[in-house]
Amino acid sequence: MNQKNFSRTPAIAGLIVLSTILQAAAEVRHLTLTEAVHLAISQNRVLKIARLRVIENEQKKVGQRSAYFPEITNHSSVQQITDLQNIVIPEGTLGKVSGSLVPAQAVTLPQGQKTLFFSGTQISQPLTQLIRIHQANRIAAAEVAASRDDLKKAENQIAVQVHALYFGILITRLQKQAAEEQSTYAGESLRESEDNVRNGSALKVAALQGRAGLLESQQSVLTEELQLSDLNTELNDLLGLPLDTQLDLDAAAPANFELRPREEYVQTAWSQQPEIQAAEEAVRKAQYGVTAAKSAYLPDITAFAHQNYQDGVPFLVRNFGTFGVNLSWDVFDFGKRRASVREREAQLTEAEENVRRLKEEAAVAIERSYNKLERTKNQVQVANQIVQLRQESERLAQNEVTQGAVLVSERRQAAAASYKAQADLLQASLGYLLAWAELEQTVGRTPGF
């Protein structure tokens, strides 16, 4: 029995290992840059909160719109009084009839009931208040538009962050490969140094220096691994994926863009940048606020119709109606309305100044991004030439190793330099792409979307 169980153990272990491998393989997520941007836009929690804020403001606007229509209210009450005032007709008050007193004895006439019930239903339509109601609706509409602009701004920022993390992972992976190649070179150099020390052709310090170089290269590999793990976790969080998801990122990305004149980008930013549009909505909101504040000088006039029902009050019919107009006006408020108007006017001036500030900042940001785009393009060209030289150097070193003219470590060193140059080229290329994404964000477009 024990032998049978023992024979099953390798099979069970094999199934566990196989399931672990399959599970690990299933967790790898293949993504392109465009797919990553779309995933972040749809799943990022910050953007979900921003969309809910838009819905919140839309419902607030619906509530403001309802103030245009008549309001129907009902007020009902039940009251218990402690005593009633009765009418008493004394004996003989009405005279005599056939010698008999009228009334023959005192008569008490009760007035109403101790339990009173009142119910009134009123329909009222604001008239002069419609001015303020209209401005409140326009303010609510401006808040909806501003929240949508904030959502667009957040989407653009998230897209740029996706670009930065996506490119950072690709660069770090190539830098890790370069560090591993450097570690291989350091290991080969250490082996050669130890052989030379044993042969008496080198001092012991050469081996110590080689070992220190090996440890430093191994430390570089560990550093790149830790950075790669951190970037992978941050990108998963940004995309709304489980934090331990392994990402397989496609390095293919567009490298050439049609660059238009600076002035065109500035005009596009002024008309499309979400932050500027939100500031312009704030200006309109402040304008509506000034109008609403000035309308406080007008009296509140409300037309109404009231239907009443009562039970328990004497000399009053059970059902009766009233209709008319109510007027309410603050004759003197010690400067409160004037202060409110001035406050709204100050807010309007502040909002207009903020729009001018944002437009100036957008022009500066476009100038900076435009220059950065040109510089990074030049860096890509220089890095590409360095890669070609390093690859040629690696090829020559391989030929010399084959001919026995140089040591294997020198070929390893040339290979490590070639990997480093390729990493620098990728970093320059992705820096160019990131500069383009920042320019797109500045003009108000979602990069990669």
Give a description of the structure:
The protein is α+β, with helices and mostly antiparallel strands and 449 residues long. The chain has one domain: Outer membrane efflux proteins (OEP). It is 66% helix and 14% strand. It has nine helices and ten strands. The chain has a four-stranded antiparallel β-sheet, with no helix packed on it. Strand 4 and strand 5 (100-101) form a beta hairpin. Helix 3 (45-65) runs antiparallel to helix 4, helix 4 (130-199) runs antiparallel to helix 9 (408-442) and helix 6 (262-272) packs across helix 8. The two termini are 64 Å apart. Mean pLDDT is 82; it is low at 1-13 and 15-26.
Key descriptive features of the protein:
two-stranded parallel ribbon, Outer membrane efflux proteins (OEP), 10 strands, 449 residues, disordered N terminus, alpha+beta, 9 helices, 14% strand, 4-stranded antiparallel β-sheet
Provide the number of structural domains: 1
CATH architecture: Up-down Bundle
Please tell me what the overall shape is.
Answer: elongated
- Annotated CATH topology: Outer membrane efflux proteins (OEP)
According to CATH, the homologous superfamily is Outer membrane efflux proteins (OEP)
**Helix/strand class:** alpha+beta
Low-confidence stretches are 1-13, 15-26
Task: Report the CATH C-level class.
Answer: Mainly Alpha
Q: Beta fraction of the residues?
A: 5-15%
Order of helices and strands: HEHHEEEEEEHHEHHEEHH
Outline the biggest β-sheet: 4 strands, antiparallel
Radius of gyration: 42 Å
Strand order across the biggest sheet? 2-7-9-10
Mean pLDDT: 82
